[in-house]
Amino acid sequence: MRRTGSEPLTARSPLRLRFWLGLWGLLWAIAGTVAFALAGRTGWAVACGVLWLVITVDLVLVLRHIKQGPHYQPGPDVPPYEPDRGGPGPGGVRRGDG
Hints:
Layout: H1 15-38, H2 42-68
Helix pairs in contact: 1-2
């Protein structure tokens, strides 16, 4: 069985784009936190600070995934998985029956 063509052969993860957009957002979150804190708008400063924290965690995870490098991707000679149609599994026993 050959590949169906429904999966891209040259698919790439947009991690670098996500990193740069996250860095751009991080700069704005830092600027917002500082600006709102100086303006005395505590609620908005806290909101920007929370956003700053979320973006920082996301950037750490993105960098971790980039450092892991590409993972194994099957070649064009490897057939795609057949979808599970809920029928009997190996040996004629339905999965979940025991």
